[in-house]
TrEMBL record:
Keywords: Isomerase, Metal-binding, NAD, NADP, Nucleotide-binding, Potassium. Residues 1-191 form the YjeF N-terminal domain. GO terms for molecular function: metal ion binding; NAD(P)HX epimerase activity; nucleotide binding. This is NAD(P)H-hydrate epimerase. It comes from the Eukaryota. One of its GO terms (cellular component) is mitochondrion. It comes from Rhizopogon vinicolor AM-OR11-026. Signal peptide: none annotated. The keyword Isomerase applies. The lineage of its organism: Eukaryota, Fungi, Dikarya, Basidiomycota, Agaricomycotina. Its EC number is 5.1.99.6. The keyword Nucleotide-binding applies.
Length: 209
């Protein structure tokens, strides 16, 4: 999770420099996807960005609570869950870019409260969006078939691209430089080489469908 979150932060920083996009709204769900977002928020703070965390349903796992505490220790603002519905529009207005770490590859529709309204507000904000692993609201195999998911500008796939991202046409990065060679060979992942010491590598764009 630490390396995955670092890859997410590096992807956002690569596309959206802190001089023009200093304020990042990190939107976290209650699962591992949200944990990646919390790690990314911490690294973005280390990079010199000013992240704010939107987390209406904090995860219950111990690791999630520890990651949240690390963000608190870095003085990263966290919107209180009880006021998140009212505060999200204001947070969007004061942000420059969004890191979407709400739903992961295990998501199954429908989108339930409070995230149903949140996805609509995020989409309507017009802000650039960087999604983690798969855009929130997308099916891991069928993409945004339900039409309720986000349409990000940038996607960072973790470990390997998921089937559903074949429908994604924005800038696409691969992150998570931690897959053992044995696993790559076993599942025939055919992953590209990472440049230098980078945690990410940009992939060719899919043609618009």
């Amino acid at each position: 999770m630490e390396l995955a979150g670092l890859a997410c932060a590096q992807t956002l920083a690569t596309v959206y420099g802190k001089e023009k996009y200093p304020k990042v709204l990190v939107c976290c769900g209650p699962g591992n996807q949200g944990g990646d977002g919390l790690v990314a928020a911490r690294h973005l703070g280390m990079f010199g960005y000013k992240p704010t965390i939107y987390m209406p349903k904090p995860g219950s796992k111990d690791i999630y609570q520890r990651l949240r505490k690390q963000c608190v220790n870095m003085d990263i603002p966290i919107i209180p869950p009880l006021t998140s519905t009212e505060e999200l529009p204001r947070a969007l207005q004061s942000s420059n870019v969004i890191l979407d770490a709400i739903f992961g590859f295990s998501f199954k529709p429908p989108v339930r409260a409070p995230f149903d309204d949140a996805l609509k507000l995020i989409s309507a904000s017009g802000l650039p969006i960087v999604s983690v692993d798969i855009p929130s609201g997308w099916d891991v195999e069928r993409g945004n078939a339900q039409g309720v998911g986000l349409n990000p500008d940038v996607l960072v796939s973790l470990t390997a691209p998921k089937e559903g991202v074949k429908y994604f046409t924005g800038r696409h990065f691969l992150g998570g430089r931690f897959v053992p060679k044995a696993m790559q060979e076993k599942f025939e992942l055919n992953l590209p080489d990472y440049p230098g010491f980078d945690q990410i590598v940009e992939l060719p764009r899919n043609p618009k469908m």
